[in-house]
Design brief:
Layout: H1 5-11, H2 23-30, E1 37-40, H3 47-54, E2 58-63, H4 66-71, H5 73-79, E3 83-87, H6 93-99, E4 105-111, H7 116-120, H8 145-151, H9 154-164, H10 170-183, H11 189-200, H12 213-224, H13 226-240, E5 241-251, H14 254-267, E6 288-290, E7 296-297, H15 300-305, E8 313-319
Parallel strand pairs: 1-2, 1-4, 2-3, 4-5
Antiparallel strand pairs: 5-8, 6-8, 7-8
């Protein structure tokens, strides 16, 4: 039984504090039809899933955060069999879909950003705007950001902060962390943010951007393997989507968007270049056709209401009948980083 449209509109974002980004655009490019099966790989507060159910689709929702799974049980009951909610990583969406009884699906949607629910909870340690434990683990298990900050060798910390945070002064930040942790291990978010602010200072031109922003981004991505997850999910979506199935991705920073863009460029390619000196290279059949000519961004009306939508970029493609290919995540743009208790690689 599908949820009513009015219910979907009134609660499309789940809890009031969470607003699904680019919801109208996601629905436009995903184009869910009644009876179709869609994988919502980043369930969160259920914003996308609720809207998909309202269109009559069956949904396999996936989330690695136990809080999201617990919070989604009411929607599972309301959906009366049309929503299967699975605890797990979206990189494994193919296995989750098959285990749910679907050997092929009509759509996959992924919101690659950190959930606003997680950002808003100080005890999760994602934000430097309020004090909390230096945690950042989406799954609430495994090595935390504090473990990384206190134990990762300084040369590797430089690479993590520089590559994943795109912090130009990563060397200065990492060495300052190394000196401080020898005196006392880091435990809280504000403790680390304060140190970074002392090292980098505040630029008058970027007064609204906290100096710790890039380092916190780097730690969060590294702790959760976000780029690995994103690249592996693209390959999984390619394998599970039926011909004609739609893949819609919403990314929030350049590293994610670069991987998505590179994937679609490779998978939609029909010619291999060449010149008068070199014959045109053979390319495998395209596995996707591009639906969005360029990245779709939020309109001013949405960003006024939801500032977190300002950096969002949506890209979408439609699956062809060509067989899925192997995917090298590093060729797709995932950097090679030092391993740390199962992280990196």
């Amino acid at each position: 039984m599908a949820l009513g449209d009015r219910d979907a509109v009134s609660a499309a974002g789940g809890p009031e504090r969470h607003v699904p980004v680019l919801l109208n655009e996601v629905l436009e490019w995903l184009a869910p039809q009644s009876g179709e099966v869609v994988v919502d790989g980043t369930f969160g507060a259920g914003g996308y899933s609720r809207a998909l159910l309202a269109r009559g689709a069956k949904v396999v929702g996936i989330d690695r955060d136990p809080d999201a799974i617990a919070g989604g049980q009411e929607l599972v009951r309301e959906a009366d069999g049309d929503l299967i909610l699975v605890p797990g990583q979206f990189a494994d969406l193919e296995q989750h879909a098959r285990a749910s009884g679907f050997d092929g699906v009509d759509g996959v949607v992924l919101d690659l950003g950190v959930s606003s629910m997680q950002l808003d909870e100080a005890e999760r340690g994602f934000s430097f705007l309020r004090d909390g434990p230096l945690d950042m683990r989406m799954e609430q298990a495994g090595p935390s950001a504090a473990d990384v900050v206190n134990e990762l060798p300084v040369r590797d910390l430089i690479r993590v902060i520089g590559l994943l945070g795109e912090e130009k002064r990563a060397t200065s930040v990492a060495h300052a962390i190394d000196r401080a942790r020898q005196e006392k291990p880091f435990e809280g978010t504000l403790e680390l943010a304060s140190l970074i602010e002392k090292v980098l200072g505040r630029s008058p031109k970027k007064a609204q951007i906290h100096p710790a922003t890039r380092t916190f981004q780097a730690l969060r991505i590294y702790v959760n393997g976000e780029l690995h997850q994103a690249a592996e999910a693209l390959g999984a979506a390619e394998r599970i989507l039926k011909p004609g199935g739609r893949l819609v991705l919403v990314s929030f920073h350049s590293l994610e968007d670069r991987i998505v863009k590179r994937f679609f460029q490779d998978r939609t390619k029909t010619r291999g270049g060449g010149s008068r000196h070199m014959p045109e290279a053979e390319v495998p059949p395209a596995t996707f056709e591009m639906l969005t000519r360029k990245a779709v961004e939020a309109a001013a009306g949405e960003t006024d209401v939801n500032p977190r939508a300002r950096s969002a970029k949506l890209r979408a493609g439609r699956r062809t009948e060509a067989p899925a290919r192997d995917l090298d995540i590093h060729e797709a743009g995932v950097p090679r980083l030092a391993a740390f208790h199962g992280l990196g690689g």
